Amino acid sequence: MKNLLKFAAAGILAGSSLWVHAFEEQQLYGTWCFYEQEESGNIAPAQVNVTFNTDGTYQWMDTQVQQKGTWRIRENDLVLSEAGAHKLVSVSGHRIVMTRDVTMKMRKDSCF
Q: Which tens digit of pLDDT belongs to each residue from 22-65?
């Protein structure tokens, strides 16, 4: 019986690691400041405004580049028509963490 309980507990724990959180588009609406990226432990500051509009369009704007396109959520990915898919790690009312070769951090606010 003791081994059966250990096996059941291990199965529950293993299954819980497979749980995937589906993010909602409404969580991303508005303007965000992409302020930091990390790659292999190296942190670099960034200063990019990204606005996700309710009509499914977005605007990516820094001091040199302005990009417009469409966006959507596909399971745990943020798909940008002009920049590809980014895996959403966490989304809250004030912060987004996503990955695509590097870890990108955004806060709910304008950079400028």
A: 789 999 999 999 999 999 999 999 999 999 999 999 999 998 99
Pairing relationship of beta strands 77-80 and 57-61 according to DSSP bridges: unpaired
Mean pLDDT over each residue of the chain, to the nearest integer: 85
Q: How far apart are CA 79 and CA 75, in angstroms?
A: 10
Structure-token pair, residue 48: 């990019």
Residue 22: the pLDDT is 73
- Three-state secondary structure readout of 30-85: EEEEEEEEEECCEEEEEEEEEEECCCCEEEEECCCCEEEEEEEEECCEEEECCCEE
CB atoms within 10 A of CB 71: 21
59/49 Cα distance (integer angstroms): 8
